[in-house]
Design brief:
7 strands
């Protein structure tokens, strides 16, 4: 039954990808064949099917504002990825043990991503008062259960939109280059590397900024 459902979902994505190519090919049959070959050279059918799957999965993602009852999932999701690659640090505990007091009450925000009603992702905007940046994008974590479902991209876009709605002009973040999917995501969102600044995190080896438009 599960295999049948999986095949059914894949057919939906394949059909959507083929319809997309058909819509882009406007010529008669023989010309269209050549146009299909060109379009597939630009982006393979597999890549198109994967993109359609992400779009379909994204429809099941709901981004909501943080509430006190989300504290445990905010903490657990972040502890999970930090402990996998690094060691928990003092600043981690400050933010994760009391996100309401450390982030929200100081002018920051936290968003939570639900997938099919289950909280599986979190991301925070920490208010900065250094005169250069309005917010720091921090504590973004997505459950391994939904990796590949575009949750991180949707969550990050939502937190940037939140900063934009608050009139932010620049967002700052800290990361580590060992986290290649995260770094690729930040580049995709428009973040650029900046010269090193003082940081409370020993694991930080790259700092980036986004000029909010």
């Amino acid at each position: 039954m599960k295999i049948s459902e999986g095949i059914k979902d894949q057919l939906i994505d394949v059909n959507a990808a083929i319809e997309e190519i058909s819509a882009q090919a406007q010529h008669k049959l023989w010309e269209a064949i050549g146009e299909w070959e060109f379009l597939l050279e630009q982006k393979s059918l597999l890549r198109r099917v994967m993109d359609k799957k992400k779009e379909r999965d994204g429809a099941n993602v709901e981004i909501i504002d943080y509430k006190p009852e989300h504290q445990e999932v905010f903490r657990s999701l972040n502890v999970e990825w930090i402990s996998k690659y690094f060691t928990m640090e003092e600043s981690d505990y400050k933010a994760l043990d009391d996100p309401q007091g450390y982030i929200v009450d100081k002018g920051g925000f936290i968003l939570v991503a639900n997938y099919d009603g289950e909280p599986i992702g979190v991301c925070a905007l920490i208010k900065m008062n250094d005169g250069e940046y309005d917010f720091e994008l921090a504590k973004m974590a997505v459950s391994p259960k939904v990796q590949g479902k575009n949750v991180g991209f949707l969550l990050a876009n939502a937190i940037i939109d939140k900063a934009r709605s608050l009139g932010a002009s620049k967002i700052y973040l800290e990361s580590n280059t060992i986290l290649k999917p995260a770094i690729n995501l930040y580049h995709k969102l428009g973040f650029k590397k900046v010269p090193a600044k003082p940081t409370p995190y020993a694991r930080c080896n790259i700092q980036m900024e986004l000029v909010v438009k």
